[in-house]
Amino acid sequence: MLARTIDNMLDRIESMVEQITIEQAGKRKAELEMLQAQINPHFMFNLLNSIRFNILIRGDRENAELIESLSSLLRMTINRDNEFITLQEEIDTIGHYTRLMNFRHANQVRLDVSLIPGCEKALVPRFIIQPFIENAIIHGFEQFDGDIFIEAERVEQQGASDLRITVRDNGAGMNKSRLDELLAKMNQDNGNAKEGPRQGFSGIGVVNVFQRLRLIYGEKLVTELHSEEDVGTVIVIQFPYETKAR
Fold first, then answer.
1. Considering only CA atoms, which of 246, 12, 235 is closest in space to residue 131?
2. Nearest Cα to Cα of residue 111 among 99, 121, 100, 125
3. ∠ at Cα 142 (139, 143), nearest 5°?
4. How many CB atoms lie under 10 A from the CB of residue 30?
5. Which of 2, 4, 134, 174 is deepest in the core (most CB within 10 A)?
């Protein structure tokens, strides 16, 4: 009986060693794949920049700028180290995005950005304005040209300092029924509101942007949404002005 017990124990130990060996091998493989995942984006960016430089020296500045925008947009999308970026970085991302969308849709949407000095240093959640721009380009202008105006100012009230961002377009706008529907979704609880099937580049719908801001800033968030058919849409977001990471 003692011999059988020892044999069984040795079998279990051997099985455990084998399982640990398999787990360690899997862990090393996962670590290697993670390292490769970190290397591949850098390789891709370097390759894109090499292609851009090659195109640029051949005198094709337009396509070189498109590749620069694509590289910058991919870098911002893949790099998730910082939840907050400066407003200027968000505006730069929007500029690259708009250039690529104009190329894709063969139209000309113009950006007009007006930032009161100091606002460009404010920290904002990543990709917090881009979905508004995407919505304006895809739904507001469709295949037509148009203008998108982005304004930012610092608002002082009751001893607090807020950043107020206004995004306005002169696109198709929304009728009252569609506007009321969107406002209702905005006012629903985070777990109940659902965006439509189209979500676009960032995977974040306009409604979800408001929900995300509400989760971050709570009652300190102020939002406005106005739209008129054949006139355009105005979106306003206001939240605490911050220049230091949380």
1. 235
2. 99
3. 170
4. 10
5. 134
With tokens 């990471």, the residue in question is: 245
What integer pLDDT is reported at residue 36 of this predicted model?
Answer: 53
User: What tokens were used for 136?
Assistant: 């304006």
Three state DSSP letters for the chain:
CHHHHHHHHHHHHHHHHHHHHHHHHHHHHHHHHHHHHHHHHHHHHHHHHHHHHHHHHCCCHHHHHHHHHHHHHHHHHHCCCCCEEEHHHHHHHHHHHHHHHHHHHCCCEEEEEEECCCHHHCEEECCCCHHHHHHHHHHHHCCCCEEEEEEEEEEEECCEEEEEEEEEECCCCCCHHHHHHHHHHHHCCCCCCCCCCCCCCCCCCHHHHHHHHHHHHHHHCEEEEEEECCCEEEEEEEEECCCCCC
- Tokens representing 195 are 């965006």
pLDDT, one tens digit per residue, over 122-145 is 999 988 998 899 888 887 787 678
Helix (H, G, I), strand (E, B) or coil at 99: helix
Look at residue 40 and tell me whether its pLDDT is greater than 70.
no
The dihedral through the CA atoms of 39, 40, 46, 47 has a sign that is: positive
Mean pLDDT of 12-26: 80
Exposed, middle or buried, 151 (CB in 10 Å: 0-12/13-18/19+)? Answer: middle
Residue written as token pair 């091998």? 25
The edge-to-edge listing of strands for the beta sheet with 160-169 is 109-115, 146-157, 160-169, 232-240, 222-228
Tell me, what's the pLDDT at 199?
A: 41
